Amino acid sequence: MNSAKLAARFGLVAATTGMLTACESGGPDPILSLTGSIAPVETAADQRARSVEIAARSDSLAISTIHGETDSPVPSLQNVTLLSDPSDCSGTPPRCTATEPHTRIPLTLSLGSFVRNLEADLDSQEAVLTKGGITLTDGRGGRYGPTYRQYGAWMDHSGFYVLTGARQQEVVAGATISITLRGTVAGGALAGSRPATSATWQGVMTGTPATEDGILQGDATLTYDMASHTLDASFTDIVDLGRNAAHTVSEAGFADVPVAADGTFGDGVVGNLVRGGFKGPGHEEAAGVFEQHGIIGAFGTKRQ
User: Domain spanning 9-19+29-303: which CATH class is it, in words?
Assistant: First the structure.
């Protein structure tokens, strides 16, 4: 294993809040109109306080493939893809490790990494909008560099975030290089069982293009079939918040995803996968990550 190690450690607790400046003229907020949302119904402080308690009782975490670029002059090191499997996650609170297969550079993501230093993690943090009872927050800068963004939410039993523009320096092959990474994470307190009846969960997704930093948002719907122990997941009306327009890919989806006895679900391969789980003692929520059509996303939903 290459001795070079990427020391960056992301935490969902850090990914609680930030600011999306939508309209400085005082007019209607275009982001609310674009996403069909309302003004946030809770504050950044509300989510920060709740996230600490959720992280303390969390026992599940899902992460997407991590994509990024470096400033290395070596062509083979200029683009990096860090792979992860559910078997790479362990512990309570859980942590997952994604690894670049050629250089063996690892990246560890955890739910609890930033509980102790939450206030110092970001330069700015603010609630942005609420949709379907879920308030999304946006955080910027801080220890991961001025380009760092994190966009997502803490619900009552789980959290989900897209992380972009995270910078880290590391020594690889005797040279110091700067690495910029993006990915998605979702985790929380697993229900521990399948839902007892067929039902639907609705909420939101956040994401980024796999090949460049950007913030995407859309609607998320999960439909569970008790008879087959499978679910369908659909992500629709995906928009690009930076461009204030529909994303080039407006929909993604998965059918007949197996749901395990402990309430986790997953299917697919790198670039076309979904992973997650039902959260809360009554399966009140479902959260996870997905990859499809060049999008890496995270989602959080509530039972209807």
Answer: mainly beta
